[in-house]
Amino acid sequence: NWERNDTNFQQIGTGVSESSGIFSFPITGKWLIQLSYCWQSVDSSGNNQAHVYVIAEIQATTNNSSYDRIARSPTSNDNTGGTYWKSSYVSTMLDVTDISNQKVSFSSYRANGLKVMGSSSQTDTAVTFLKMGDT
What we know:
Blueprint: E1 17-19, E2 22-24, E3 29-40, E4 53-61, E5 68-76, E6 85-96, E7 103-110, E8 115-116, E9 126-133
Antiparallel strand pairs: 1-2, 2-7, 3-6, 3-8, 3-9, 4-5, 4-7
């Protein structure tokens, strides 16, 4: 459930679109992609989880079919108990030369329990796309 930032933000030009977790670029160019996950180390019942790790990944395709990992960022907590709040950040540059076939998706892998945090009133988990220049 992604939403475009609607607080203190004004989109410039045509933005990147999303459908079923696949992000498509509106125009060719060199794009900076920044992904930030905010997560809490609890299971679905709200119980604290120790030794939780999460790996945030950016995946890309050049054929609109098979995806490969192009960037990742692992993080974890310790084993002292309690509820942990962590963030994972990963970024990459992508030279988009074919908007029909080049797309990106995001994933996270985890051990133990984890809740990815999101909100419609503030930025918790987010992705930012910035066109940095022409291809």
